[in-house]
Amino acid sequence: EIEGLRVRKENYENRKSEIERRIEELQKGLPEIEKEISELRNESPKIAKKAEELKKKKLEQTLIEEERRKIVTLRTELNNLRERIRDKERQLARVVAESESDMKNLEEYSINLKYRDEKDCLSSLEVLKKNVNELRTKVNDLNKKELEHERLKSVAESEIEKASKIRSQVSKLDMCPLCQSKITDEHISHVVKDSNEKINVAKDGLDKSEKELDGIKTERKRAIESVKELEEGRSKAEMELVRHRTIQEKKERIKRNVEDEKSLKIEINSLEEKRKSLEMKSLDVGKIEERYDAIR
User: Fold this and answer.
1) Shortest CA distance to 262 belongs to which of 102, 142, 135, 91?
2) CB atoms < 10 A from the CB of 280, how many?
3) 226, 218 Cβ separation under 8 angstroms
4) Under a CB-based contact definition with an 8 Å cutoff, are residues 37 and 55 in contact?
5) What is 165-190 written as a DSSP string?
6) CA-CA-CA-CA torsion for 144, 148, 153, 155, nearest 10 degrees?
7) Contact 254, 99 (CB under 8 A)
8) CA 1 – CA 264 distance, rounded (Å)
9) Higher confidence at residue 109 or residue 61?
10) What would the pLDDT profile of 91-146 be if each residue is shown by its tens digit?
11) Contacts of 51 (CB under 8 A, 6+ apart)
12) Measured distance CA(114)–CA(232) in Å, rounded
């Protein structure tokens, strides 16, 4: 807009200089013309009259030529203005098309959303992340407990095997391997009783460890399944977060485009008013051309 004004200013200044130059030339030539007219008057009234008419004709021709130059400038300005209007209309079309595309995408992205907005989605992701970490810690703790009960189970099985072996072998021995005394029925009964007690205690520990292991395995399986479900939920929440952010970007761009559309329409209307004004002025072109042809 500013560049166009600058160009028009330069054109008007150039036209002004040209007019001033021509006026100066006319003024320089007027004394000579007036001298010739005076001489002609002396020679003949008819010649003087003709000279006066010629003078008027030249002046009128000069004025008409100036008007013609103005018209040429007007036409150039009008063509430039029309091109600017077309350019603004192309810009408006692009903005409108972009807005329509964003609105369509906005509707598609807004289908089947679980969370209200980006903030709600981020909050849910934090909770999901915390729950996943807690469950993974629980699984690690269960793994440690499993190893401990596997160890206790192995110890109990070894204790049962050892006590059972002693119980089965004591009746076959003549000498006690511990006190090196002769094995009596009372001694055998004591060893068998002691072995049975150890076996019973070990079996109780073994049963307890096996129950604990069953519970650990069941609890760990549920925890692992929960981790899997939470991970799937977190993955979906992360994808939805991208959608929420895209929706927000689309909304902001639509808002900007609405403002641009409004601004462009106002600018186009203003340019159209200028165009109509210039076209009204250009209607006098034909009359000026007729006057110019008439005096040539």
Assistant:
1) 91
2) 9
3) no
4) yes
5) HHHHHGGG-SB-TTT-SBP-HHHHHH
6) 150
7) yes
8) 14
9) 109
10) 989 989 988 888 888 888 888 888 888 889 999 999 999 999 999 999 999 999 99
11) 33, 36, 37, 40
12) 14
- Rg (the chain; Cα; Å): 55
Any bridge partners for residue 205, and if so which? Answer: none
User: Residue 116 has which token pair?
Assistant: 């209200």
Q: Tens of pLDDT along 1-46? A: 556 656 666 666 666 677 667 667 766 666 776 676 666 556 555 6
Residue showing tokens 């003949």: 44
- Scan for tokens 């002396």, then name that residue: 42
And the tokens for 117? 């907005």
Spatial separation of the C-alpha atoms in residues 261 and 248, rounded to whole Å: 20
**Tokens 């004025």 correspond to what residue?**
63
Tell me which long-range contacts 182-191 makes (C-beta under 8 A, separation of at least 24): 191/166, 191/167
pLDDT score of 266 more than 80: yes
Distance in angstroms (rounded) separating the CA atoms of residues 212 and 63: 115
User: Residue 182 — left, alpha, or beta (φ > 0 → left; ψ -120 to 50 → alpha)?
Assistant: beta
The reported pLDDT for the residue numbered 67 is: 67
- Quote the percentage of the chain above a pLDDT of 90: 21
Distance CA 158, CA 202 (A): 9
- Report residue 194 as tokens: 């002691």
Contact 241, 119 (CB under 8 A): no
- Could you tell me the pTM of the whole model? 0.52
Distance CA 203, CA 82 (A): 102
Measured distance between the N- and C-terminal CA atoms of the chain, rounded to whole angstroms: 39
The dihedral formed by the CA atoms of 256, 258, 263 and 264, expressed in degrees to the nearest 10:
110
Q: Are 153 and 206 in contact (CB under 8 A)?
A: yes
Q: Six-digit token pair at 196?
A: 């049975």
More confident call, 280 vs 293: 280
